[in-house]
Deoxyribodipyrimidine photolyase (Microbacterium aurum), 457 residues
Amino acid sequence: MPASPTLVWFRDDLRLADHPALRAAIDRGEPVIGVFLLDEVSPGIRPLGGAARWWLHHSLADLGARLAERGSALVLRRGAAAEEIPRFVAETGAGTVVWNRRYGGPERAIDADLKTRLRSDGVTVESYAASVLFEPWTVRTGAGTPFSVFTPFWNACLNLPAPRAPLPEPREIPGPATAPDTDALEEWGLLPTAPDWAEGLRERWRPGELAARRRLRDFLDDDLGTYDRARDEPAAGATSLLSPRLRWGELSPHTVWHDTLQAAGTGAHAASAHRFLSELGWREFAWHTLFHFPDLATRNWRASFDAFRWPHPDPEHLRAWERGETGIGLVDAGMRELWRTGYMHNRVRMVTASFLTKNLLVDWRIGEEWFWDTLVDADAANNPFNWQWVAGSGADAAPYFRIFNPARQAERFDPHGAYIAQWAPDAASRAPIVDLAATRREALDRYEDVKRAARAE
């Protein structure tokens, strides 16, 4: 009688190296079948944006090829997890299902219900820690509450046992004698066709695990030493560009953590490595916040911010922001880089978000939705977390009434105008759509409502 297979349910962990669920499946000694489920219909699951769908297509193609090279298979299915995963278990006769844990509210509910249902049917179900360095329930204040400020949060993390070492990539993966039927990836329609707007994404990115490892190695070899002093300069090319790799799990944070420490050692790069790893800590902070506040994309984390009076957005102003036609050089350069490549430098993300929410007085949720659709690295935690931080409604947004001046930001971080010249060379020829000083004063006036609400709490 053939052995019952073990199913590995891939989600946002599209890799073979440092994949605890995959390693556990291989160690069972039974045939291993990978499955990826495109679930955009379960309650609370947010459909992917266009740029994310583009990346997912190519990353899945890469993962399927790598699994096949090692003797296994990746099966693609589409639909609600509560229906499709039990159906696939019955179809394959699997005795075990394994996955790496997720931390969003709807995802946790889906996984918990599936565990209960499958176990009641006699199926072994196990889950593993893989996508964050420190699981959310392990980091608490002395009072037992979640942290709301980054620095004490990250200090608490660093006082915990160090993140585990990454697991090696398996050389062989025992597969089934006959691979189950699979959807054709091309039939999912993840790639844009009418029109095909992804030319800039194809020029900039090559999704997949091997490309992710090369990017990490190149960053550590070439840019880690200058990261501490040049990371805020969008024209410097000193950032890691690892955010989409981490978002899709082509790299694990454990791999980034340990490879960075190994590359830095105790030499001249140690300070830059510390700064870079704190950015990994900011990612952790976002996921911990989402775990404790599942409505992060739709509701103000800071309740007093409900008093902020968002006017009805001016459609012409909003369109100008989306297209990079505001007449503000750094803002326009960032928005055009985003549209062309699916990416924007982090410093410029803060400036463009501040301009939308505090100069144009557009609700942060509208900007978050635009980034969700256009960023290749948009995920359920970091995207809304960072928008709320800039808007002033989120965790650690102190002072929450901070307003970035895009002109001063350009003078400081793009002093030679190289970034603006690259992405918005016509910026100087256009008049700004709003007066920065006047709109700043209006935003500060509206913040008085938030201050009064905060004092009343």
Notes: The chain has a mean pLDDT of 95. The chain is about 50% helix and 5% strand. Residues 132-164+209-292 form a domain with the Serine Threonine Protein Phosphatase 5, Tetratricopeptide repeat fold (CATH 1.25.40.80). The first strand starts at residue 6 and ends at 10.
